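User: Quick sanity check before I run a bigger batch. Here is a single chain. Can you write out its predicted 3D structure?
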Amino acid sequence: MDDVDRVEQAMIAIRRRQSRRTLAGGKEAAGQAFDVLDVIESSHQPTVSTVAAALAVDQSRASKLIATAVGTNLVRRTADQADGRRSVLMLTSRGQAVVAAAHQRRRETFDRAMSGWTESERAEFARLLTRFIEAMP
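Assistant: Done. Predicted structure follows.
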């Protein structure tokens, strides 16, 4: 098995663990429903188009995911000040709390996984992982 095979296997293992809600939690939104919250949190003036592009889904699917998030009081729509026909998506207080709790769970999970690592190993891993993600198409 070469290095690329090992990276692929590691990515598959991470994805499987995420799908079991290890990182996302389990009491709130998970999978694409949670991904909507992540996209909204990390985007400047996110719209349905922003969510669709980030999740690689069509506008219809993104609209359904957003409607669910709105219906569960995680997201709200506000009028775009530059274009009244568009809605800008914002996390509600509840949505912000869900995302903050998820960040905390993730950080705790990652910290436990790296508990035996030195500071320099953590820094090198962060540097290489960031570089890897930035190079992904």
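The chain has six helices and two strands.

User: Great, the batch can go ahead then.
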